[in-house]
Amino acid sequence: MEPLDKLKKDWKKSGDRYPKFSEKEIYAMVHKRSSSIVKWILIISVLEFIFWIALSFLMKDGESQKRMNDLQLDYVTIPMTVISYGIIIYFVVIFYTNYKKINATDNARTLMSSILKTRKAVSNYIIINLAYIIISSLLIVVLFFYYDPNLINALHKYEEEGNALEFYLIYFTGTILLLGVIILGIWLFYKLIYGILLKRLKRNYEELKKLDF
């Protein structure tokens, strides 16, 4: 049973034994919880942005990055990086705007609308991020296949032995499985962190709908 429903049931049963909260007081409690949740969504998105920047610096001397540099794919990797950061910055701004709106509102209907917008923004953020990761990863895989001399030499070796199909199966199946594991891990992270916060926002929204008693 939801906390607000339990309070209502107790009030009806107990008469004056329990302190009675006005709609204004209940709204204030829901408002405070909602503001705190959206603040955490904002904080997590900023931390994620910092994490990706830090990871890019840590990996700049790694083997995979050296291979990318050798292939001279800056015309692809730089726009991809800009788009990636742009997506996160855009949603950080959206989350910050929603946080300010929720903090400033003094109306239950406006608060409900802000909660719905925030939940939709978080859902869009997760979908767009996952879609971008999938598309960019597949693009890198294709570019490596066509331009990486190590892969080209390996393909030629398999072709000479009449096992070109085996090479394709190993390369693309292995890549898809690895990408699937990475995407699943990121999706689970989003579901765990943002999912919990979204459920709490939904609970607050449902409680606001029941305030007219």
Approximately how much helix is present in the residues?
over 70%
| Silhouette | elongated
Please outline the major beta sheet.
none
Structure summary, number of beta strands: 0
CA radius of gyration: 25 Å
Number of helices: 7
Low-confidence runs: 14-18
Provide the structure class. Answer: mainly alpha
Order of helices and strands: HHHHHHH
Distance between the termini: 17 Å
Strand residues, percent: under 5%
Please explain how this structure is put together.
- This protein has 213 residues and is mainly alpha-helical.
- It has one domain (23-209).
- Helices cover 87% and strands 0% of the residues.
- Helix 2 packs antiparallel against helix 4 (74-104), helix 2 (23-58) packs parallel to helix 5 and helix 4 runs antiparallel to helix 5.
- The radius of gyration is 25 Å and the shape is elongated.
Write the layout of secondary structure elements.
Layout: H1 3-14, H2 23-58, H3 63-71, H4 74-104, H5 108-147, H6 149-160, H7 164-209
Helix pairs in contact: 2-4, 2-5, 2-7, 4-5, 5-7, 6-7
Summarize the entry for a quick read.
Keywords: Membrane, Transmembrane, Transmembrane helix. This protein is an all-alpha fold.
Which features characterize this protein?
mainly alpha; elongated; 213 residues
